[in-house]
Amino acid sequence: MLVSLIAGIFIFSLPLNEWVGLLDMNNPANIPVLKFMQITQSLSMFVIPPMVFGWFMMRNPVEYLTLNKRFDNRLILAVVLLAVAILPVINLLGLWNESMKLPEFLSGIENWMKKTEDQAALLTTAFLTVNSFPGYLVNVLMVVLIPALGEEFFFRGVLQKIFQRWFVNPHIAIIFVAIIFSAFHFQFYGFLPRVVLGLVFGYLFYWSGNIWYPVIAHAINNFIPVSLTYFFREKFDPAELDQVGTGPDSWLWALPAILLSIAVITYFYKISKSQPTNNSIEQ
Predict the structure, then answer these.
(1) What's the pTM value of the predicted model, to 2 decimals?
(2) Is the pLDDT of residue 88 over 90?
(3) In the chain, which residue ranges form alpha helices assigned H by DSSP?
(4) How many CB atoms lie within 10 A of CB 72?
(5) What whole-number distance in Å separates Cα of residue 13 and Cα of residue 28?
(6) What are phi and psi for residue 67, nearest 5 degrees?
(7) Could you give phi then psi for residue 115, rounded to 5 degrees?
(8) Better pLDDT: 173 or 88
(9) Helix orientation angle between 73-85 and 212-231, rounded to the nearest 10 degrees
(10) Longest dimension (CA), the chain
(11) Structure confidence by residue, pLDDT tens digits, 2-49
């Protein structure tokens, strides 16, 4: 991260004392610098450490992270369908989460949480609002590819394995890591839906023993809002993308989405269990 900061100073010719003002979203000149830092820090925090950890554990990060596992086309199709089908469910959970009210004596914490959430929404809007296809591709790299790879390598490929050895019970490990995964984003009004996503990603990895399935699901989950805001920018506000599939008739979307998601998850589980190399994530 220090190297990326030093590199940013030279690349953008920005003195160190001016980096403090980069969070001013009203200045368009700040956005490329913030995107550069987002990309480089995501690489340094999530992508590189699991590779190094895998080398220390097995002298082979590819094998440790199960990057050499073969795909099953049936499971890939199930993952894609699940990532799309579960979206209304996740967004409905997000609306419930946003309606959360803390007791009066915790009003200070609640105000801080709302302020943090508002800042995150401003940053998301600034990042996703682009008017060129190259800008869209940068967002795909920054918001879709690197987080899907890095966060799944880190949370499922490393932490889930560690906690599974500690707790012995894999289900406790999956739940624990899902909570950490959600908390790490520091978006408290999206805590519940991210926990559910973390559970889904965790079980996809546990049942299949293949990190690529949660990576694909994670990538699709991030790809949808990035693409909607670029190709349908007049209809989709980046700050309101967590409301896609919700509204006055939310249950008309959520109920069939829940049933379809359960069916796809069941199918994924049965196919995974029928394969001889499944569930081998206890290194």
Answers:
(1) 0.88
(2) no
(3) 2-11, 30-42, 48-58, 61-64, 73-85, 87-98, 107-128, 133-139, 146-151, 161-167, 170-184, 191-208, 212-231, 250-273
(4) 18
(5) 16
(6) -75, -15
(7) -65, -40
(8) 173
(9) 50
(10) 59
(11) 888 888 888 888 777 777 667 666 777 788 888 998 899 899 999 999
Contact 213, 275 (CB under 8 A): no
- Residue 96's CB: how many other CB atoms inside 10 A? 11
Angle, helix 73-85 to helix 191-208, in steps of 10 degrees: 170
Long-range pairs for 270-274 at CB < 8 Å and ≥24 separation? 271/72, 271/74, 271/75, 271/78, 272/75, 272/207, 272/208, 272/209, 273/207
Of 159, 157, 282, whose CA–CA distance to 210 is shortest?
157
At 130, the amino acid letter reads V
Instruction: Supply φ then ψ for residue 61, to 5 degrees.
Output: -65, -30
Kindly give, in sequence order, each residue whose CB lies less than 8 Å from that of residue 97, ignoring residues fewer than 6 positions away.
189, 190, 191, 192, 193
**Residue 177, phi then psi, degrees to nearest 5:** -70, -35
Q: Pick the residue with more confidence: 60 or 121?
A: 60
Q: Which string of DSSP letters, residue by residue, matches 222-237?
A: HHHHHHHHHHTTTT--
CA distance 91 to 234: 20
Question: Are 147 and 42 a contacting pair, CB within 8 Å?
Answer: yes
The pair of structure tokens assigned to 155 is 């949370």
